[in-house]
Amino acid sequence: MRKTPILLADGRELVYYNEGDGSDHQEPDTRDLGQFGPSSQIRRDPLLDQWVIVAGHRQDRTHMPAAEDCPLCPSTESRKSEIPSSDYDVVVFENRFPSLSQKSAYPKTDNPLYASAPGWGRCEVICFTSSHSASFSSLSRSRVRMIIDVWTERTEQMSRIPDVQQVFCFENRGSEIGVTEPHPHGQIYGYPFVTSRTSSMLASAAEFQSRTGKNLFDAVVANEAENSIRTVVHSDHWIAFVPFAARWPYEIHLYPLRRVPDFQALTDIERDELAVVYLDLLGRFDRLFPKPAPYIAAWHQAPLTGDRSDFAFHLELFTSRRGPDKLKYLAGSESAMDVFVGDIIPEEAALRLREVGNPT
Amino acid sequence: MRKTPILLADGRELVYYNEGDGSDHQEPDTRDLGQFGPSSQIRRDPLLDQWVIVAGHRQDRTHMPAAEDCPLCPSTESRKSEIPSSDYDVVVFENRFPSLSQKSAYPKTDNPLYASAPGWGRCEVICFTSSHSASFSSLSRSRVRMIIDVWTERTEQMSRIPDVQQVFCFENRGSEIGVTEPHPHGQIYGYPFVTSRTSSMLASAAEFQSRTGKNLFDAVVANEAENSIRTVVHSDHWIAFVPFAARWPYEIHLYPLRRVPDFQALTDIERDELAVVYLDLLGRFDRLFPKPAPYIAAWHQAPLTGDRSDFAFHLELFTSRRGPDKLKYLAGSESAMDVFVGDIIPEEAALRLREVGNPT
């Protein structure tokens, strides 16, 4: 994998990742972008004890551009995109409309009731392919294998930013769930705090450890591996299952059989197999319904602070589609009370996900 | 307010609430509905330590019926709906496709890793008017005043069910957020557990109390009343404001100025004024955009267990609409990490909500 970093016209960083030798990617960004000066802040909700990001400048971000104006396609003579080169394999760059950045000038306040701080951190976009109409599930195994290494490398890079406490790689796919840019891409957030979801998992794990002497993630993985009723895929190094208390119509959690904190800790053999298994799972989501299901793919990594060994790196992949023409919406119970009401029994979802395995 | 209870053909309870004398509502339900035997369960997510409701029978619930088939309109000679009478003011009945009921026969399990239990509890539908094309914001003040009394009475009734630990009155309004039935109606859930959201608030309040000796809700209300930058409406007995760390593009929290645990504790004067203020707030949501904003209106009441006096009854009203043709979707950061990214600065949302006050 060859890396070529450049700077965009407004000073943002961009890195090309090439599978082979290919282009030297020395095309300059000739656009007149003005200053990159996003300003966001984080505010602590005192009732829920959670951070909320307030990023007013994002209200005007790009919204469903026409395909010929796609900012994630390579540039051409007549149309300059976010990527100056005329082709690329995988490219990563700082989001032009970031929720978090190292630029924010908001003051930190220490009101006993209302804490707030600048929205320091980093938001990157990762383009998985230069092909506008492709999808992650259509990528070659070697490309996916490379993307796993890119996620690893970006996690390492973001971990070096002093304010960043947690790195989150994810992909939102499908206009049904609000994706405003169809070009195959994901995002990488470097949060300046440990997210609420991760804190909850760590608290549960600590409680389980003190009650049973065991690691909670290990117990879940062992239970699912033994009692295969919710298993979707069980390979040499990975297990994918529908969780016992799934929130979404179709939801899959994917764990390595060996507990590791993050991408970096995976061996080459585990990575090779992950490329195969992840493509397999996405193919199942494509085949669940007459058209591919929209999804969110969330790679959970240990935060950078505290004892990282208790947390288990894993993927949570889910779709809000509950039928060919029905979506699950988060209504009063979910949005206001955090109580999900599922329409599909997890064991039946697993059965269905096993049925739509690769037909070849 | 006159109450007339009847039983529907499958044994479910229905109660008519009349403003004046009106009909005696003795029309029988002549439909052939078969047995009412919903079966749901609750499962504990071990990683997040939250209950999830699994209700497989809901997958086939009514989905966007044609207006002439509306199950919430009064019955006619030729078309029998859920409401046998030919007219009504306000009516409440057990949901035919409930997430929770007193019928479930699932066994309780006490696996140390995976707890589950029958989905005992109750789900009611409340129809605010017999007029199919009305909206809550178009109701008369006297009707709203009566609905406040109905919410109070239903909360009292549900509180008597031994399994119910928390009563939640809410309304989901607008097809954009997944409402499958446009007739003006709300829902009332009796949960067999304290919801995760309420537990979080109580934990924050306990922590604040031990740190400052003060009640957290009181501190928030006092702060907003004093520093009016986020205030939307401040009347004799109520204050409505955009919260400091709002999650949604437009979000309003409405508190009585006197801390009470639930609907029942409100005085007549507070109820009278609540009818006025709530209609005022809904009118603002109607006027924010060229067409009325979809919304979720969530009435937070103290759970039935524990010390109820620390909790402050309040409304959380929010819309996911962030522009005339844009919705906020919950993508990776929100759905997978519980970190909301807001596009609209709370103080600017409050300014806008003050601007769209009643023009008369």
Write up this protein.
- Two copies of one chain form a homodimer.
- Chain A has 360 residues and is α+β, with helices and mostly antiparallel strands.
- Chain A folds into two domains: 2-168 and 178-193, HIT-like (HIT family, subunit A); 197-355, 2-Layer Sandwich (HIT family, subunit A).
- Chain A contains six helices and 18 strands.
- Chain A has an eleven-stranded antiparallel β-sheet with strand order 1-2-5-8-10-9-14-15-13-12-11, sandwiched between helices. In chain A, strands 4-3-7-6 form a four-stranded antiparallel β-sheet, with no helix packed on it.
- In chain A, a hairpin with a 3-residue loop joins strand 11 (231-234) and strand 12 (238-241).
- The two termini of chain A are 30 Å apart.
- Chains A and B meet through strand 3, strand 4, strand 9, strand 10 and helix 2 of A and strand 3, strand 4, strand 9, strand 10 and helix 2 of B.
- Strand 4 of chain A pairs parallel with strand 18 (341-342) of chain B, so a sheet runs across the interface.
For the terminal residues of chain A, how far apart are their CA atoms? 30 Å
What is the assembly state of the chains in this entry?
homodimer
Could you give the count of β-strands of chain A? 18
Q: Could you tell me the mean pLDDT of chain A?
A: 93
- Total of domains of chain A: 2
Q: Quickly give the structural class of chain A.
A: alpha+beta
Output the helix-strand order of chain A: EEEEEEEEHEEHHEEEHEEEEHEH
Q: Mind telling me which CATH architecture of the largest domain in chain A this is?
A: 2-Layer Sandwich
**Spatial order of the strands in the main sheet of chain A?**
1-2-5-8-10-9-14-15-13-12-11
Low-pLDDT stretches of chain A: none
How many helix segments of chain A?
A: 6
Biggest sheet of chain A, open or closed, and with what strands and sense?
11 strands, antiparallel
